[in-house]
Task: structure prediction
Amino acid sequence: MNALVVGAYWGDEGKGKIVDLLAANSDWVVRYNGGDNAGHTIVVGDKKIVLHVLPSGALQGKNVAIGPDVFFNPASFLKDLNHVRESGFSPGKIVVDERAHVIMPYHIKLEGEKIGTTKRGIGPAAQDKANRTTDVTVFDMTSPDFLKKIKEVVNEKEAQLTAAGILGKNFDAETYCRRIYEVYSAYAARIRQYAGNVSYMLNEEIKKGSSVLLEGAQGSLLDVVHGTRPHVTSSNTIAGGAAANLGIDLRPFKIIGIVKAYPTRVGEGLFVTELGNYEDTKNEERNKPLTIAEKKSVVEGNEKLLGRWIRMDGAEYGATTGRPRRVGFPDFVALKYAAMINGINEWAITKIDVLGGKAFKAAIAYKKGTSITERFPFKLEGYEAVYGQTEYFWPSMTEGQCKAAVSEGYDALPKGMKQYIKELVRHTGIPVRMISLSPERDITLINGVFERTVEYLRK
Ligand code: IMP
Result:
């Protein structure tokens, strides 16, 4: 099976676990967008592995590739690779596209504070990509003329680098270029063996009948065109981005949307169903469990504390930056939009266990003044959520109960959980293939899920 995995909300949907699971039946696992702004967390036994650039298929000994439109930080790539090897795993073949855009030290330094980015230099590298004469590719980095290329680029960017204080007091341009070269040529020496053309490679593999898994980073609402601009990342995160970025035909691919049971968002930007507000989230005491009195106040309707409770139970702190993630009520408006812009065939729901024991509702429309819409607006300013009538609730499940549900099948899930899933399916028009009930690889319910959730669309 060829499949593409894409996040439905603003990233951090738990794609790492689903990719890891699907990778078992894949020959190749391929990253098609983003860079080391992403952090994919995978739990295998007692090991927790966070990968930023390397596709998580590496943990299953699969062949992995990094596509031509990835913003490639060579240090992060080598760190991921070491991390995987030191944890006792060994990837199959590795291909890094020679056209991938290399994140240079000045990209990270040039990154401004404005929109709450991950500070990995993604935006400045994307500017150089669009500029076309100041980008550095893996091809450049691994060529014998690398130093010359660095000098040309630094020369063209001299005014910008001087204005930012990167050149001047500490470094003249010549010394700066040599410093970069020293570090990056050492990376290049290790990466040269992996450089290749991922488009040719993948097209040949697909033709041969190999099964390919495409791993998207970030989420649909962070797409540079279709997301909540300006608070988005610099690449196309949606499924179609894979066709454009990799140069492949997506028709043989199943598009799997990963929907976390509740949306989260890191960094700035409006968030219609947010529980509490971002300022409080930033200032709250971390990892502090709720007291009985606080839980009681949640039952009485304290949404800010419900947000903190979900953040705690779901360990919602950024895998890349450690920032607390903002948490919201499920948003069927956003999910319906994600289903449309990606062409999603089926959902994989993650972290639904986290909502056990917590009553919640879901947005079914947005409202601005007197006008109500079911469409996801370009600008979210002034919109508030219209919630459905249903209050969802089920008691939290123990690990034993989760494991039992995995073997017994969909019907064994708590009634309130099935009601939530049913309404999610009906609002989005998309059935569910799998439901993750724990970070553990094995605690994922597949048995009966598709058959039952397709029925929701018939009745
Ligand atoms: P950038 O990708 O570092 O430029 O950040 C742009 C926006 O995307 C910020 O709001 C980031 O918090 C967000 N972002 C980037 N990568 C991820 C991710 O992997 N998960 C969640 N948010 C992300």
Summary: Residues 102-192 form a domain with the Adenylosuccinate Synthetase, subunit A; domain 2 fold (CATH 1.10.300.10). Residues 10-12, 37-39, 116-118, 120, 122-123, 217-218, 222, 231, 233-234, 266-267 surround inosinic acid (CB under 6 Å). The first strand starts at residue 2 and ends at 7.
